[in-house]
């Protein structure tokens, strides 16, 4: 005798309450968040200072020289590294190039529209470039094949495929993990032909010298510090902080948008250093 399955029924009253909550959230988002924080909880169930889970998977893009997929809660970023050979700059004859870029396509969130890169994507790409290039995550000298003749160019392209806030932190993890996963063919410069010869029989990993992580915070209503804000919380914040530190606990950068006391800033820096020790082994060891 065939058995039948019937889905659990939801009472009309429960449906009405859910609809009321969603309507209230959309029409009065600030009051909605205030009611949760009054109970020391956030809409996604976290406490104010609780972080979302992070997972890292590497090597999933077979056509890239290195790749990583990172999930930070519901924010998902995929990053691929593509290596090309180019001539160096005349004033830097032994320096290769590292070119990071983040794309926030319309498919990842309703807040982004089709067309040219959004202002947010460009700002985040600039900040990622500053972190990766200016701090020497990879020595550009290590990308030299032949001085004045040929160097590697690494295009580090990240795409957010699902956006639920805090794309910067997720993307930085994805980029570092993808660079760790990158292997370049052994390259030599032939003086007779003036060409670079590559062999994939010997694949060489990149020389990564620093492992930064960034942690983002938001201040809501002047009193509540929220770690790792979601896309719902981000537009409601009075002030945002992003603190970037390295493996030695050194502060690489602090970006603050809005006003806050020095005590709040110091607390965010201390929290970032503590979080680094917990997270770095997990996200970078898996690469």
Write a structural description:
- The protein is of the alpha+beta class and 287 residues long.
- The chain has helices at residues 12-27, 29-37, 119-134, 167-181, 262-285, and strands spanning 54-58, 66-72, 75-86, 97-103, 144-146, 150-162, 183-190, 195-205, 213-220, 224-227, 239-245, 251-257.
- It has one domain (30-285): GHMP Kinase, N-terminal domain (Ribosomal Protein S5, domain 2), CATH 3.30.230.
- The chain is elongated, with a radius of gyration of 23 Å.
- InterPro entries: ExoRNase_PH_dom1 (IPR001247), ExoRNase_PH_dom2 (IPR015847), ExoRNase_PH_dom2_sf (IPR036345), Exosome_comp_Rrp42_subfam (IPR050590), PNPase/RNase_PH_dom_sf (IPR027408), Ribosomal_Su5_D2-typ_SF (IPR020568), Rrp43 (IPR033196).
- One of its GO terms (cellular component) is nuclear exosome (RNase complex).
- It is found in: Cytoplasm; Nucleus, Nucleolus.
- GO terms for molecular function: mRNA 3'-UTR AU-rich region binding.
């Amino acid at each position: 005798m065939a058995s039948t399955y019937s889905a659990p029924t939801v009472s009309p009253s429960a449906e009405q309450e859910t609809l009321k909550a969603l309507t209230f959230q959309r029409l009065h988002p600030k009051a909605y968040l205030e009611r949760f924080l009054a109970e020391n909880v956030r809409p996604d169930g976290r406490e104010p200072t609780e972080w979302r889970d992070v997972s890292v998977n590497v090597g999933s893009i077979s056509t890239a020289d290195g790749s990583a997929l990172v999930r930070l809660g519901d924010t998902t970023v995929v990053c691929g590294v593509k290596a090309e050979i180019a001539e160096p700059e005349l004033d830097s004859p032994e320096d290769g190039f590292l070119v990071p870029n983040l794309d926030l396509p319309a498919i990842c969130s309703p807040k982004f529209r089709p067309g040219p890169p959004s202002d947010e994507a460009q700002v985040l790409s600039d900040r990622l470039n500053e972190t990766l290039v200016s701090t020497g995550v990879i020595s550009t000298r290590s990308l030299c094949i032949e001085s004045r003749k040929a160097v590697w160019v690494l295009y580090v392209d990240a795409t957010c495929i699902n956006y639920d806030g805090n794309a910067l932190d997720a993307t930085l993890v994805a980029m570092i993990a993808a660079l760790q996963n990158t292997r370049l063919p052994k390259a030599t410069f032939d003086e007779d032909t003036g060409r670079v010869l590559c062999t994939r029989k010997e694949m060489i990993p990149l020389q990564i010298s620093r492992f930064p992580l960034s942690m983002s915070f938001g201040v809501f209503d002047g009193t509540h510090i929220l770690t790792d804000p979601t896309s719902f919380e981000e537009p409601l914040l009075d002030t945002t902080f992003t603190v970037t530190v390295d493996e030695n606990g050194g502060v690489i950068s602090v970006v603050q948008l809005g006003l806050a006391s020095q005590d709040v800033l110091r607390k965010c820096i201390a929290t970032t250093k503590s979080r680094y020790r917990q997270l770095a082994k997990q996200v970078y060891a898996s690469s």
